[in-house]
Amino acid sequence: MNYRSNITIDFFFLGNDRLLVTTDNLHLYSIEDMSQPPELLAWFLMPVSLMLWCLLPVDDIEHPQPHMLAQPTMYTSDPAHRLICLTVPCQLNVYSHTQFFIISTRIFFDLDGMGVAAPIPWEHWGPSNARIFRHPYHGRVSISGNRVLQALPVGDSEYILHLMDFSPLAVTNSRGLGQVVKEPSTIEISTCGRERSLTTSMPYHVTFSERKFVSIESELERIWNDKDRIYMLIADLEFSTVDGELISVKRPFGRLEVIDI
After folding, report:
1. Please, how many CA atoms are within 13 Å of residue 253, restricted to the half-sphere of its CB?
2. Around Cβ 53, how many Cβ atoms within 10 Å?
3. 143-195: pLDDT as tens digits
4. Cα dihedral sign, 37-43-44-45
């Protein structure tokens, strides 16, 4: 596997027999026979040349019932029916945004008619198997299985948790709760100066938390999610006045809060 030296390289294991390597495009390899070099199965082109970073998914925690003596165990969802998240950072300042490509792994297991003879254009595989979001650089995102958890701004200084479920079952069985999004969405993808309009349409179901956070930069440190719970690392704050302005300072230790889904 040879790649240009000026690009970022990352990877995902998709089960025990497939490896997805991310450069400025996506390269799918078979690693079924570990005694042989990886075999290239398909080459998926991204819409524009991007510096891609992988946001690693969180494995689920199996929580035992109170009467059970077994310890909690970790398990990974079906690799053919989960999500990966690729981030595209730009300028690293408080005014910049990070772009997120949420991609279903099903496309990497349904290779009928695809091969290594030629790269697969974004237009042939991307729009129906992905959603693109733009997020403030200081925002928080977590991914687990088919769910994406985001802390997004509401108004000027408040933030709320959005839980998006991309599983077909969640989309068809919403039972009037939350909102089902099937309409295509278009976003301007910027790569530090260059922009292109991209439309994606993978359906999802979204619910919103009732709790709002004031100034996510100084209160909500990190978020995680699994199939049953949301975990939030909250900073403990101390407030003081400097030159007549009220400021907050994070204490060395925070607290972990857990919400059942």
Report:
1. 1
2. 14
3. 988 999 988 767 665 678 889 999 988 888 877 788 999 999 998 876 655 67
4. positive
Tokens of 178: 């939350």
> Which tokens go with 160?
């709320």
Residue found by looking up tokens 């299985």 in the block:
145
pTM: 0.79
- The position carrying tokens 């042939």 is 124
Q: Identify which of 21, 57, 14, 30 has the alpha carbon closest to the alpha carbon of residue 226.
A: 57
- Alpha-carbon distance of 163 to 150, in angstroms, equals 7
Of the candidates 105, 69, 113, 114, which has an alpha carbon nearest to the alpha carbon of residue 85? Answer: 105
The residue to which tokens 């398990």 are assigned: 75
Half-sphere exposure of 157 (CA within 13 A, CB side): 4
Q: Where are the beta strands (DSSP E) in 137-228?
A: 140-144, 147-154, 158-165, 179-181, 185-190, 195-200, 204-214, 220-225
